[in-house]
Amino acid sequence: MSLAPPASLFDEYRLTEAFDEMFEPDMTPRAAYEMLHRRLHELSLEELTHRQRAADQAFLHRGITFTVYGHGEATEKIFPYDILPRVVSAAEWERVERGLTQRITALNLFLKDVYGEGKILADEVVPQRLVLSCKHYRREMRGVRVPHDTYVSIAGIDLVRVPGGEFMVLEDNLRVPSGVSYMLSNRQVMRNVFPKLFQHYQVRSVDHYPRMLLTTLQELAAPRSSEPTVVLLTPGVFNSAYFEHAFLARQMGIQLVEGRDLLVHDNVVYMRTTAGLRRVNVIYRRIDDDFIDPIPFRAGSAMGVPGLFNAYRAGNVILANAIGTGIADDKAIYAFVPEMIRYYLDEEPILANVPTYLLEREVDRRYVLDHLDELVVKAVDESGGYGMLIGPHSTRAEQAEFRDRILANPRGYIAQPTLSLSVAPCFIDGRIEPRHVDLRPYVLYGKKVRVVPGGLTRVALTRGSLVVNSSQGGGSKDTWVLDG
Q1: What is the DSSP letter of 372?
Q2: How confident is the model over 273-313, as pLDDT tens digits?
Q3: Pick from 327, 350, 421, 296: which is nearest to 118 by CA?
Q4: Taking the model in full, what pTM does it have?
């Protein structure tokens, strides 16, 4: 028995105060969405359900997974995927791309300055105490010459669209940003789900990202090596992002290695191969600073390579991203990125920050403690949706817990207004409904800045939820940036 389609799959779709990616306030589709809107009205519920199931099966067969940690256990799950794409016009993307280029340029200048002359600290544009107290500040990096002054060569910048329609930066992910494999997998699956629609829309490609990434990594080694050996260093199969590590290494045509596959001799890094030792020039590392070398950092780490930091300091190997970049994705330092842009580039920020309360400031702390039920509180060094209080959706007990945490460690937390993230149409339980979304574009910094046209649109699949992280029940959808 076939499913009878309702009069319209949009019958129960309701606008809210949030910016709607597909619809104008009068429920007419925005220009970028007109073709998709028309096509969805031509499809029956049965057809759309079949396409969603086909997409889910494709993810299952490709082994596209992520790991959720909790209660002392790790659970492997298929990445949730919504088949309705998010569409971004060429004009919107042009501004986003300029803003991301500006931001990563300023962040690299900041890191060079902090580990070098420290002018921005001496001029009190960024408080020195914030930098020196940052968990990810590495005194060992003071005076280390980083090739081409490129500290951050791979970044994932999280953007949100607020009710006025403008994109804002929610946070910077600069240590080991993840998720790009899901962006690429989403596109591969989407071509099969809506092949004709995809062709007619003239969507800009993201398939060249692995090639762009490899080029960026090779550029870091120039001019010392014309044919550098690049490897991807992974913590191993039990890491939550191992699927991505293997996927990217395969797509780039480079070796995926663990710490035990590398050794250091006379400050030179070598890879063990069946043909003997082979020198390594560039390491795309997916391991945090603490674990990368057990000699200067965390003793006893089996994931790292003894002697790697000395080889790095001697200039005999390049690490992407550089050690110590975690300062710049500390959520307290994030609050000062607009000032960094003004200081180093003498420009106004193209993409604004979300207003941020620094809880080590007494006036900010008093306000936040009085309004915990209204604000979002975040730990400055957590990611994945962990260490966070969403005030309007929290209990009194949770608020009391965060009050104690803040009072015990005010430097460890920031607070922001509860944003009404934009919503996009999603196919859920046989209906098309709005769900909150964000966007993580991926930015590469080599001889020039390269921004892949699109990114990972993350979706809060639970109705009313603002949490888009997959570890907290979120999913993703393909992001279509149009050519014109």
Answers
A1: T
A2: 999 999 999 999 999 999 999 999 998 888 999 999 999 99
A3: 327
A4: 0.93
